[in-house]
Design goal:
By secondary structure, the chain is of the alpha+beta class.
């Protein structure tokens, strides 16, 4: 078995085979099951709807009369300044163009819409693995592909309609083309000429094919990068990165200088033969060393990249800013104010705003990178530093490439988010590339018996400790702020994490912490016990630890597709709600849609449906004598519950936080109406304890009782129910706070009442509310003792939160912060 594994490892070390395996692995992960997860609403659905609207309008315009020709302008008149993207815009339109192309080919389907984006994901992996193969070989290519597939920035973008993956794919292809391109036909020409050491004609043809692919990657990458990210994010960043790693064409400049010197001497000799004879009789001319052809060609490509970056920068500056007289409060340079043109830039792919978006903070992109490359992205800065310390010039140059690519993309992303709008960091392939090259270098060093090769061997334990602690910290942050990951592709924490999301009966966010910690722990063990300087061979236990880390990395890559996206789609898309309807419908049943679901019924209904626009139409439909299914916003449940009257209604699907499935007939399962035991028109039964005197908040809400356990274990979960009588319409949105205090210790149970199914804005006079909530009783470090429960209502967020005033309560049960004490719970 060991010999067989060694044979396979030798085969996979071939760069072309390793890139092929990376392509197959990416396709097997990203392409299957594209139609299974639903479109997240409203973000993905809105993107698909916009593309469908565009296609429909285009088809309608084909048969219409052409628009009148524009009126001719007077000589010298200036063209109007565009304020938005024209219809023929190219920059930053790649995703929309792909969606429109798919929709123009026939009836829309999720799989068809996602397929081009998934192919872009495969292309990104192939291009990045190709760069690694060119720089270090097949093993580095496989490592780079595996790390990339474990990044949610790649995996989730490849299967989401809110993707900007064209920018990353184009940048990786552009760098690969610049890196691998050689003088076209040079090898084939040498093969045809023949001679000692010349390659065979077959080898020459193979090299010619490789050159053709490199040129195609260069040109195709340039087009993809511009269409995906525009001149700033798509073209300028990778061009600058390649120019930086080649010294901006240093070799080409040296070769050009030598050529000019020789030309000058030849010209002087032609003009003055006597001077040539005198110089020949004096001191012998110093013989210059021959130029390195490889360095010269690399420098020439660096010059091309520099020129490309300069053109992109010129276009961006010319189209986005003007230099005018000094004005107060403006940025200035050389005695002139920098003034935005306030015009749409076809090179930028957006409008450079006069004022900054203050919501785009310094750490906006940092958080996106940290969470989007979890957990391996933490290792990228250390890997780049280690490669820069390598004695090998090739590895130092690769480190400069990765550093320039990642850093320039970060600066460009920050500027874009501050002045244009939200965008997704596109240089994550540079992070995977740097880590893969560093791991490959550490694995290569002991195999080659090189005593000085392993980068920073003495710091390996610190590397491992930093990686482990960083992964645990980020994993815990994602448990507290999972919106940073659900909103990774749309920004501003716009998509709330559905706490009910489960995969294999385990909370979806818990998998992230578990797999991330496993990866970091195994990688840390490898760094602690693995290859060190001067070691004849890496210890087996170190190699086994690295194998465990890579296996856990593959598991994380699978989890993003099969676990995270799938489990959250069940709650963030109405697809599952429609699936429940399709499973229970019978011939003759009606489907009524209330609220804006976009084109979701077109994708998921599987038959005819009726759209109603008023609440009364919804109530009339539920009161029909025949069976009716109704999809309605979850926020309407309070109104339906209060106004339905004697007509029975049932909630068949209550999982989706935005959309409910209602019916006037009960389904095969029990009624899932959360208000059946939460909202009453008379005092509810089951109140265990009552206050000795009245407790009233803002003369609107009276607390009439509660049910709570007397004793719980630390770390356990328990349910508490607080009962309210509504004295007057609340009219505003409030949350409930529950503080369990013991001296300086506290655990809390803050929440939205009734799980958000009937917000306080809907509470009316005469209602009785039973608010049930599950509380987690601290953790293992929480001290035992008798905790006092203080509660009330609050709005806002720290530090600007505000509590609802307490208008009536016994003095011993209230405090100066508008809190009311209910009971004590013993924590043991």
């Amino acid at each position: 078995m060991r010999r067989l594994l060694a044979t396979w490892a030798a085969h996979l070390a071939r760069p072309w085979l390793a890139v092929g395996v990376a392509a197959v692995a990416a396709a097997l992960l990203l392409l299957p099951g594209l139609g299974e997860p639903g479109l997240w609403e409203p973000q993905e659905l809105a993107r698909a709807d916009a593309a469908l609207t565009y296609v429909t309008a285009s088809r309608a315009a084909q048969g219409a009369e052409p628009p009148p020709a524009p009126r001719p302008q007077s000589p010298g008149a200036k063209a109007a300044c565009p304020r938005q993207a024209p219809k023929d815009a190219v920059a930053r339109t790649l995703t929309d163009r792909l969606l429109r192309w798919v929709l123009s080919r026939g009836e829309p389907s999720e799989a068809a819409l996602r397929l081009p984006l998934a192919l872009l994901g495969v292309l990104t992996v192939v291009a990045s693995a190709g760069i690694a193969a060119r720089l270090a070989g097949g093993r580095a290519a496989l490592l780079c592909a595996l790390l990339l597939l474990s990044f949610p920035l790649l995996t989730l973008q490849a299967r989401s309609l809110t993707s900007e993956l064209g920018t990353a794919a184009g940048g990786a292809l552009l760098i690969y083309g610049l890196l691998s391109l050689r003088p076209i036909g040079a090898t084939l020409g040498a093969a045809l000429r023949g001679g000692p050491g010349a390659p065979t004609r077959l080898a020459g043809l193979a090299h010619l094919l490789d050159d053709a692919l490199s040129l195609a990657a260069l040109l195709g990458g340039l087009a993809l990068a511009f269409a995906g990210g525009g001149a700033l994010l798509g073209v300028l960043v990778p061009a600058l990165a390649f120019a930086a790693c080649t010294g901006a064409g240093r070799g080409a400049w040296l070769a050009l200088g030598r050529a000019l010197r020789r030309a000058g001497r030849a010209l002087a000799d032609l003009m003055s033969p006597a001077a040539r004879w005198r110089r020949a009789g004096e001191v012998p001319a110093r013989k210059e060393p021959p130029a390195d052809a490889g360095e010269t060609w690399l420098g020439a490509k660096g010059l091309v990249a520099t020129a490309l970056a300069a053109v992109a920068a010129y276009l961006l500056v010319d189209q986005t800013i003007d230099f005018g007289p000094l004005q107060p409060g403006t940025r200035q340079v050389l005695g002139h104010s920098i003034l935005p043109t306030s015009c749409y830039s076809w090179a930028l792919g957006g409008l450079w705003q006069p004022s900054d978006d203050l919501r785009a903070l310094f750490d906006s992109s940092v958080e996106q990178i940290a969470f989007g490359a979890f957990p391996w992205g933490l290792m990228a800065p250390l890997a780049i530093a280690a490669l820069l310390a390598s004695p090998r010039n090739r590895e130092r140059r690769a480190a400069v490439l990765c550093l320039a690519w990642a850093a320039s993309a970060w600066v460009a992303t920050e500027a874009f988010q501050r002045k244009v709008g939200f965008t997704i960091y596109a240089a994550f392939p540079a992070l995977a590339l740097a880590i893969a090259l560093w791991i490959d270098a550490r694995l290569r060093a002991p195999d080659e018996r090189v005593t000085t090769e392993a980068p920073l061997p003495a710091g390996a334990p610190l590397f491992g400790l930093f990686f482990l602690l960083g992964a645990i910290t980020l994993g815990k942050d994602l448990q507290t702020f999972p919106e940073r990951l659900t909103s990774l592709l749309v920004g501003n924490d716009a998509i709330a994490y559905p706490a009910a999301a489960r995969w294999l009966a385990v909370p979806a966010r818990a998998w992230i912490l578990g797999l991330g910690t496993a990866i970091a722990l195994a990688a840390a063990l490898w760094m602690w016990r693995g290859a060190t300087a001067g070691a004849p061979a890496a210890p087996a236990r170190g190699r086994r630890a690295l194998s465990v880390a890579l296996i856990a990395t593959a598991a994380l890559a699978v989890y993003w597709v099969r676990g995270w996206q799938a489990s959250l789609s069940e709650l963030l898309s109405s697809k599952q709600v429609f699936a429940t309807y399709r499973a229970q419908r019978a011939p003759g049943d009606r489907l009524v849609i209330f609220g804006d679901l976009g084109n979701a019924p077109r994708y998921y209904a599987g038959g005819p449906f009726e759209q109603v626009s008023t609440r009364q139409e919804l109530l009339d439909a539920l009161g029909a004598p025949t069976r009716v299914f109704a999809l309605a916003p979850a926020s309407e449940l309070c109104f339906v519950h209060r106004q339905i009257g004697p007509n029975p209604y049932f909630v068949l699907d209550n999982d989706n936080p935005r959309t409910l499935l209602l019916s006037n007939r009960q389904g095969p399962d029990a009624d899932r109406n959360p208000l059946a035991e939460s909202l009453y028109r008379a005092e509810p039964p089951g109140i265990a304890e009552r206050p000795r005197s009245r407790i009233v908040f803002d003369n609107r809400i009276e607390l009439i009782g509660w049910t709570a356990p007397k004793q719980v274990r630390r770390g356990a979960s328990f349910e508490i129910t607080v009962y309210y009588k509504i004295l007057a319409s609340v009219g505003a949105s409030w949350r409930v706070f529950q503080h369990y205090d013991l001296g300086g210790a506290r655990f809390s149970g803050d929440h939205v009442p009734i799980a958000g199914r009937c917000p306080t804005t809907e509470w009316q006079a005469g209602d009785y509310v039973a608010d049930r909530h599950t509380v987690h009783a601290g953790g293992p470090g929480t001290p035992a003792g008798s905790y006092e429960l203080w509660t009330g209502f609050f709005t806002g967020a720290a530090p600007s939160w505000r509590n609802m005033p307490v208008s009536m309560a016994p003095a011993e049960q209230r405090d100066s912060e508008d809190r009311v004490k209910l009971t004590s719970i013993s924590l043991r």
